[in-house]
């Protein structure tokens, strides 16, 4: 009877296919159960539920694992979600093996959560800098000319490519983190990775500047006649500081965001009202 019990309680093997499924469940449920109390923890738990069910056959152990993964959690979708999903799968596997073999529990609850809490903020910063600050603007920059020509591809291309990019990247990180185990956290915080992140962040700023310079079109309609000679303000500005008006608009919106927060709708309405007034009095 004892042999049957040990066999029944033994955790099943976790494969990379299981980790891929866990990440994809997290990926597509990311914002659905978002709450102020736990933030994205229900999404992470939903992603890991099939893995936890394979690892913990005892109902009480399974409940404890659910509670462990339901603590406050918030991070970026692919970098944070991918690495942490794989890492938690690896750590839960070790915990399940220790419990099933009645060994001393080295993979304590506090260790698991502290690892997750220590990574979720750092990885969110990495993911935001690279994905939101760089990669998405590259896709947008590629598609803007198509959108200007009236092609629907200009709207579809960035959305589809960015979604596929994040899904593929997240699966890759989840698998690598599961394989590497706890050493994955050290790798993500290494000097080389941080240098690459800073480089890509600078590239992202360049891409944003290129987009603003090429596709934010603001010009002045002011002109004066002095002693029979016409002075066109826009021509003077083009000679002294080309692109100064688009830059002023972009920096004005940036200043608004720094003062008021990322209130996009308010910024659009305010900018529209200002431009209408300036156009009506003949300045722009």
Automatic annotation (TrEMBL):
<feature type="transmembrane region" description="Helical">
    <location>
        <begin position="195"/>
        <end position="216"/>
    </location>
</feature>
<keyword id="KW-0762">Sugar transport</keyword>
<feature type="transmembrane region" description="Helical">
    <location>
        <begin position="117"/>
        <end position="146"/>
    </location>
</feature>
<feature type="transmembrane region" description="Helical">
    <location>
        <begin position="264"/>
        <end position="283"/>
    </location>
</feature>
<keyword id="KW-0813">Transport</keyword>
<keyword id="KW-1133">Transmembrane helix</keyword>
<keyword id="KW-0812">Transmembrane</keyword>
<dbReference type="Pfam" id="PF03613">
    <property type="entry name" value="EIID-AGA"/>
</dbReference>
<dbReference type="InterPro" id="IPR050303">
    <property type="entry name" value="GatZ_KbaZ_carbometab"/>
</dbReference>
<feature type="transmembrane region" description="Helical">
    <location>
        <begin position="152"/>
        <end position="174"/>
    </location>
</feature>
<protein>
    <submittedName>
        <fullName>PTS system mannose/fructose/sorbose family transporter subunit IID</fullName>
    </submittedName>
</protein>
<keyword id="KW-0472">Membrane</keyword>
<keyword id="KW-0598">Phosphotransferase system</keyword>
<dbReference type="InterPro" id="IPR004704">
    <property type="entry name" value="PTS_IID_man"/>
</dbReference>
<feature type="transmembrane region" description="Helical">
    <location>
        <begin position="236"/>
        <end position="257"/>
    </location>
</feature>
<keyword id="KW-1003">Cell membrane</keyword>
């Amino acid at each position: 009877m004892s042999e049957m019990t040990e066999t029944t309680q033994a955790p099943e093997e976790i494969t990379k296919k299981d980790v891929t499924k866990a990440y994809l469940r997290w990926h597509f449920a990311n914002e659905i159960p978002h709450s102020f109390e736990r933030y994205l923890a229900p999404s992470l738990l939903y992603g890991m539920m099939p893995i936890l069910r394979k690892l913990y056959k005892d109902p009480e152990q399974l409940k404890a694992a659910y509670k462990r993964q339901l603590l406050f959690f918030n991070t970026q979708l692919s970098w944070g979600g991918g690495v942490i999903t794989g890492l938690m799968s690896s750590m839960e596997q070790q915990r399940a093996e220790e419990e099933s073999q009645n060994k001393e529990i080295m993979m304590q609850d506090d260790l698991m959560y502290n690892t997750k809490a220590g990574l979720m903020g750092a990885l969110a910063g990495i993911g935001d800098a690279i994905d939101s600050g760089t990669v998405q603007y590259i896709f947008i920059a590629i598609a803007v000319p198509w959108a200007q020509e009236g092609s629907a591809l200009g709207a579809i291309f960035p959305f589809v490519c960015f979604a596929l990019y994040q899904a593929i990247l997240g699966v890759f990180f989840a698998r690598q983190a599961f394989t590497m185990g706890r050493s994955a956290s050290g790798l993500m915080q290494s000097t080389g990775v941080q240098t690459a992140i800073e480089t890509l962040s600078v590239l992202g700023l360049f891409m944003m500047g290129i987009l603003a310079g090429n596709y934010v079109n603001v010009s002045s309609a002011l002109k004066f006649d002095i002693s029979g000679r016409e002075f066109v303000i826009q021509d003077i500005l083009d000679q002294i500081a080309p692109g100064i008006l688009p830059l002023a608009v972009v920096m004005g919106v940036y200043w608004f965001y720094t003062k008021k927060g990322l209130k996009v709708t308010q910024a659009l309405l305010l900018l529209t009202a200002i431009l209408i007034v300036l156009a009506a009095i003949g300045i722009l």
